[in-house]
Amino acid sequence: MKVFVTGATGFIGSYLVKELLRQGHDLLCLKRPSSDLYRLGDASKQVTWVNTTDDWMAAFKTFQPEAVFNLAWDGVSSKDRVIWSKQVGNIALQQTLLDLCVTCGTRKFIAPGSQSEYGDFEGVVDEHYPTNPKTAYAAVKVACSDLLRTFCEIYGIEWYWFRIFPLFGPYETDRWLIPSLIEAMSREQSMDLTLGEQRLPYLYVGECAKALASPLQVEGHCGAYNICADNAQPLRDLVTSIRDAVNPAFQLNFGALPYRYGQSMFMGGDTTALRTHLYTLDTSSFDRRLKETIDYYTTYYGKER
């Protein structure tokens, strides 16, 4: 199948590209001229690239994709998630792609949403739980989901929106939890933490990529779907296991910091709909994948020193 991908050089996007190539699809990927292809390795040579500074819309029309994956998003960092002007700008790219899909007769449009669309909650929620965004990032994700559904229903395009819960794996941006923990443990002697009673449903990013790719194998199951692990780990256990692997002498001061006001102890996503219609997530390899991730970042931060 001919597939057009944005955000292909990002954390999730790079794993998606590798999965789509594994399945034998023909890929045209949009990127900025300055994008670093390091996450893709040899896979970067197996796709066709078009830059945002080129006439990429003409390339799209020539390519005539049967499916579009729109993973590009400007403003993912925590400081950018509250900047409304930056977040709202993401709507324009989605709409441009949707208009191109109508012109070219593209049949499927797939995009990632976020757990943050649900706002703060406690427990496990399914896709019928009301959205309650608390940031500009989350609000624009909700808006894009609504626009996507309405547009695609009017023009007869299959649409799939995936609300993604916590992920982990090699090549994640340094600022997120697991890489930042490993960096601190590689360079410091101790860390102050809360009691760590929160439970985190971390999913290996490669499994997320398989779930994202699954709409290419089915017909007629449009909708919003949660992507979330079913084996939530207590934060204290996760941090301790990382410490033991990276630097057993590193001091973890659990309880030195208070929980933030309104701290949720567990926020999980029900994946019944995903399992029923698209894909069953495999979480059995968590320990092996966590070790791979720890090994990657230990080597990465070791080279930096």
Describe the structure.
The protein has helices at residues 11-22, 56-63, 84-88, 90-104, 136-155, 177-187, 205-213, 235-246, 272-277, 286-304, and strands at residues 2-6, 26-31, 48-51, 67-70, 108-114, 123-125, 158-164, 167-168, 190-193, 199-200, 203-204, 223-227, 233-234, 251-254, 267-269. The chain has a 7-stranded parallel β-sheet, sandwiched between helices. α4 (90-104) runs parallel beside α5 and α6 packs across α8 (235-246). It has 10 helices and 15 strands. It is globular, with a radius of gyration of 20 Å. Helix content is 38%, strand content 20%. The chain has 305 residues and is α/β, with parallel strands linked by helices.
Fold topology:
Elements: E1 2-6, H1 11-22, E2 26-31, E3 48-51, H2 56-63, E4 67-70, H3 84-88, H4 90-104, E5 108-114, E6 123-125, H5 136-155, E7 158-164, E8 167-168, H6 177-187, E9 190-193, E10 199-200, E11 203-204, H7 205-213, E12 223-227, E13 233-234, H8 235-246, E14 251-254, E15 267-269, H9 272-277, H10 286-304
Parallel strand pairs: 1-2, 1-4, 2-3, 4-5, 5-7, 6-15, 7-12, 8-11, 9-14
Antiparallel strand pairs: 10-13
Helix pairs in contact: 1-7, 4-5, 6-8, 6-10
Brief rundown of the structure:
This protein is α/β, with parallel strands linked by helices. It contains ten helices and 15 strands.
Based on CA inertia axes, which overall geometry fits?
A: globular
Cα distance, first to last residue? 44 Å
Round the mean pLDDT to the nearest integer and report it. 96
**What structural class results from the helix and strand content?**
alpha/beta
Determine the strand fraction and express it as a percent band: 15-25%
- Strand line-up in the sheet with most strands: 3-2-1-4-5-7-12
- Helix percent reads 25-40%
Number of strands: 15
Low-pLDDT runs of 5+ residues are none
Q: Compute the number of helices.
A: 10
Rg, rounded, reads 20 Å
Largest sheet: 7 strands, parallel
Return the string of H and E elements: EHEEHEHHEEHEEHEEEHEEHEEHH
Q: What does the oligomeric state look like here?
A: single chain
